[in-house]
Design goal:
The complex is a heterodimer of chains A (412) and B (350). Chain A has helices at 3-14, 16-36, 61-72, 85-93, 145-172, 177-206, 213-243, 246-251, 257-285, 295-322, 328-340, 359-373, 377-401, and strands at 50-56, 77-81, 99-106, 115-117, 134-140. Chain A is an alpha/beta fold. Chain B is 33% helix and 25% strand. Chain B folds into two domains: 3-223, Rossmann fold, CATH 3.40.50; 230-301, Alpha-Beta Plaits (2-Layer Sandwich), CATH 3.30.70. Chain B contains twelve helices and 14 strands. In chain B, a hairpin with a 2-residue loop joins β4 and β5. Chain B is globular. Classes of the chains: A alpha/beta (412), B alpha/beta (350).
Chain lengths: 412, 350
């Protein structure tokens, strides 16, 4: 019983390269990305005081009053009123301000969003098509990229809320204040839906929860290794088993084909679990990473990762069973590319319309829902889907690997 | 002798290619059955069908009274397969490899341990039991490959080129092992590209060509298939190699000459003819005209190689109909097919 599974386990733990890339490499990545890059791209890190020069054009004063008031109350922001747009721009050029905001009233959206700027600095949040009076903000960026990004986030936030309020008035009508109030209550979640992970982080901050870079990479690296370690190992391993005739050797035995495949998948589970443990334990104990807030959520998170690794292992084993070439390189290239644009390594590298549908991104978002808010819904849904994929992969693999000679009695 | 394997009208097609065409033969219980054929003859396809790895299109295969189409699992339990490739887990030890494959046949506990020990002893690897398969030499891996196929004491052993690429010592040990298996009650189907090896150990031999049976019988019976052909061995003196080759080419064009070839790197020219020895003066004249000195010439008794050549029109070469590969030969004496093909049973062996 389970000889093939035990053999697979032995094989894994005797393979130095598999151990390195499965157990050592991911935690090194967590440490590297979590520590070394934290200063460059830290959503919670301090960027010091941001000096914002601002000028309000006629007609926009009332609309920005509350916003400016909120900024003035923020310790890390120093507001510097300017008499004109030119003065604001000069203060950025002269480095007396880090960035400059120019607020102006608009009769209607230009359809490209609510943030404008100098041609080279312009960016849009894509929330165009606003009908009604609104305020736009032009941003002049300075020489500090981190402060520029922070200022852009502030400007975007202002623009979204301004646009959303305008939209509410336009669509609901001023004659029904109750509906406007209901709309205002829903505003944060609507905005989060547009902003993906940043929205999650914003929500988390709103609820007083923080996610450090270490926390972020601890989760994303576990998901990465579930795909990279389990996927590449399974696809290549099964292909080599076929090429080196070991699969034939197993198949000529009385052991059923289904058992051969299922035991092979079973043999991959300890490796998948070890990969998850090898990141979660050291990242928590040695690097200070945080996962979910409660033990129950952490157990669920571990189960989620374990199921993900096992499913990827089974699915890619199936690939190795049918592939005509060694799938090692093609799988590695595809996975690395997907990882690169999935936001796993850098949340800024995204392709709108694609990134949010990539498996790694979906897994990351579900994991953050659980770790940041203790909301298990997405994780449980994905686990159900993974269970279906795992079952289907095992069934397909069993059918493919099963080889009983049949006489076809064809007409010759 | 009872028939242990009965193949009747077996046909296997790959698309339009008929790899095995209405092939019928029997293998007696407790015999070593040599299975020969040139490239793409259908040997490996036939063995794949018998070893339950391939479907087939028509015909029947009966092993120990079980029909392959209806009782594949019963047949699998009787089989031991030694593939041409060294199919081992490189990171497992020799003993672990044997234990894994033997356990697939239901061996457990002490019985399994005993089977592993016996198999290791049998192939002379008892001292290497804790060495990982990937760390063993080529010859040792080849022997371990055999041990993995026989540890569960199968009744029918299929060996596809089990001595490819091994040194002389390992080969002799393997051949002794195969005889011992036969003496222990197993039936063995054996393929090899090395004709003398087949002659040495096979009780009966089948030659297939283009998927069909060309001849079957004992070595003596096979030699009787070809009565119109003789081999003449001419030993030339040392001299210009180009002249010798040119002479061989000229001789091959003479009437009554079927084949003329030098042993690679040697001075022995073997000429297959359907002439009487008294009528070979044109041969000798060609050699003399080319300036090749003749030290001796003699008529050779017909051998299996001559018979194979006559029946199939080609020499025994690499199998191209399925399995391929094999590691480089450790033994220079077995390195080239030309050498062993040209000199029949007299080729050098390290």
């Amino acid at each position: 019983m389970l000889r093939i599974a035990l053999q697979s386990i032995r094989d894994y733990y005797r393979d130095g390269s598999a151990l390195f890339f499965g157990l050592i490499f991911p935690i090194v990545m967590v440490a590297f990305l979590g520590n070394m890059l934290a200063g460059l791209d830290n959503p919670d890190g301090s960027v010091g005081t941001i000096k914002i020069a601002y000028h309000t054009e006629q007609g926009a004063e009332q609309a920005i009053g509350a916003f400016v008031g909120a900024l003035e109350e923020t310790d890390s922001i120093e507001l510097l009123p300017a008499k004109s747009e030119a003065d604001a721009e000069k203060s950025v050029d002269g480095e007396t301000a880090d960035v400059a905001f120019i607020f102006s009233a608009e009769a209607a959206s230009d359809g490209s969003g609510n943030i404008t700027g100098t041609p080279s600095e312009a960016s849009s949040d894509g929330t165009g098509n606003i009908i009604g009076n609104t305020v736009s903000v032009k941003v002049y960026e300075g020489g500090d990229s981190i402060k520029n990004r922070a200022a852009l986030m502030i400007a975007k936030s202002f623009a979204r809320e301004s646009a959303a309020v305008s939209a509410a008035f336009a669509t609901l009508g001023a004659e029904n204040p109750q509906k406007i109030a209901e709309f205002a209550d829903k505003l944060p979640s609507l905005m989060d839906g547009q902003s993906g992970r940043n929205g999650l982080v914003t929500d988390a901050k709103r609820e007083g929860r923080a996610q450090s870079m270490m926390d972020f990479y601890a989760v994303t690296m576990v998901i990465m290794i579930c795909f990279m370690g389990s996927g590449i190992g399974a696809a290549s391993g099964m292909y080599l088993l076929r090429r080196e005739r070991l699969l034939d050797r197993l198949s000529v035995s009385p052991k059923r084909g289904e058992a051969i495949f299922l035991e092979s998948v079973l043999g991959g589970i300890p490796g998948s679990l070890a990969q998850v443990v090898a990141v979660m334990i050291p990242s928590t104990l040695l690097l200070g990473a945080h996962y979910a807030a409660t033990p129950a959520d952490n157990i669920l998170l571990f189960a989620f990762f374990a199921l993900l690794g096992t499913t990827v292992f089974a699915a890619f084993m199936l690939l190795g069973l049918v592939s005509k070439v060694n799938p090692y390189m093609p799988v590695m290239c595809v996975l690395w590319t997907m990882l690169f644009i999935s936001g796993s390594f850098n949340k800024g590298i995204v392709i709108p319309g694609l990134t949010e549908y990539l498996p790694m991104n979906i897994m990351n978002r579900a994991a953050f829902e659980l770790t940041l808010f203790g909301r298990p819904g997405q994780v449980l849904t994905i686990m159900a889907v993974l269970a279906v994929i795992l079952t289907a992969s095992c069934a397909a693999g069993s059918l493919l690997i099963r080889r009983s000679p049949r006489r076809k009695d064809i007409a010759l | 002798m009872n028939n242990y394997v009965t193949v009747e009208k077996l046909t296997k097609k790959y698309g339009e290619l008929v790899a095995v065409d209405n092939l019928s033969f029997t293998v007696g219980e407790n015999e070593i059955f040599g299975f020969l054929g040139p490239n793409g003859a259908g040997k490996t396809t036939t063995l794949n069908v018998i070893s339950t790895l391939s479907d087939y299109d028509r015909g029947s295969v009966d092993i120990a009274g079980y029909d392959l189409a209806t009782n594949p699992v019963k047949i699998k339990a009787l089989l031991g397969v030694v593939p041409q490739e060294i199919a081992l887990y490189g990171l497992l030890t020799a003993a672990e490899n044997i234990a894994l494959f033997a356990s697939l046949y239901g061996l457990r506990g002490k019985e399994l341990k005993r089977a592993v020990d016996e198999a290791l002893d049998f192939v002379g690897l008892a001292d290497e039991r804790k060495k990982r398969a990937g760390k063993l030499s080529g010859g040792m891996r080849r022997r371990l490959n055999i041990a993995c196929g026989i540890a569960h004491r199968p009744k029918l052993i299929i060996m596809d080129e089990p001595t490819v690429g091994v040194d002389a010592r390992s080969r002799d040990m393997i051949l002794r092992s195969i005889r011992a298996l036969r003496d222990g009650g197993a039936t063995i189907i054996y393929t090899s590209h090395y004709m003398p090896e087949v002659q040495e150990i096979a009780d009966r031999i089948a030659i297939i060509d283009k998927g069909r049976l060309a001849a079957i019988g004992t070595e003596k019976e096979l030699l009787g298939y070809v009565t119109d052909r003789k081999s003449i061995r001419i030993v030339a003196g040392s001299g210009d190699t180009d002249a010798k080759r040119a002479a061989a080419a000229d001789i091959a064009k003479l009437a009554g000459v079927k084949n003329a070839k030098y042993a690679e790197g040697g001075d022995e020219l073997r000429v297959d003819v359907d002439l009487e020895l008294a009528n070979i003066s044109p041969l000798l004249k060609v050699l003399m005209d080319r300036g090749v000195t003749i030290k001796s010439f003699e008529e050779e008794a017909p051998n299996l190689e001559t018979t194979f050549l006559a029946l199939t029109g080609s020499e025994l070469g690499d199998d191209g109909d399925g399995y391929g590969g094999g590691e480089p030969a450790e033994d220079a004496g077995r390195g080239g097919h030309g050498e062993r093909g040209a000199s029949g049973g007299k080729q050098r062996r390290a």
